């Protein structure tokens, strides 16, 4: 790590950790969605919406701190990118839940549970990694594993699309379900973007 003679604003670390912890909350709500009935899904959507708002608040707090800090722990652009990417994850998870409720989807296609399991694992890894930004230690395995999970998510997504287009669903149902699985795939991509940003920061700070 580079030696610095100037003090650095350290509250960013806590803010990133809080944002990642909120994503874990969102991933748990996604897991709950799998076993819920219609009324239960509506209630889960309300809690997910609240979590997404909490994520927005966390992101805005980081931006405010960024704009008011003379010295930052690492590059301003990287702070902005990391905060935005964490926020994207929460947005995609909330969108997926909202679509399930809005489209009155009764049965999610087989394979969606695998998508959500991958997201839950990526959320846990991200929450574990954020505190390590303070020291830039023990991060390599994090971004390697998240990239592996994103590759796994790609494979699951392709299989889901093949299943949706096998002729067993009518056209309207295909459109609904495809939008949901596409948004879940975007969440997996966003996790990878966070991991890649952390890798960039770690390389710069080494």
TrEMBL record:
Pfam families: PhoU_div. It comes from the Bacteria. Gene3D superfamilies: Phosphate transport system protein phou homolog 2, domain 2 (1.20.58.220). InterPro entries: PhoU-like_sf, Put_Phosphate_transp_reg, UPF0111_domain. Belongs to the UPF0111 family. PANTHER family: UPF0111 PROTEIN YKAA. This is DUF47 domain-containing protein. It comes from Streptomyces adustus.
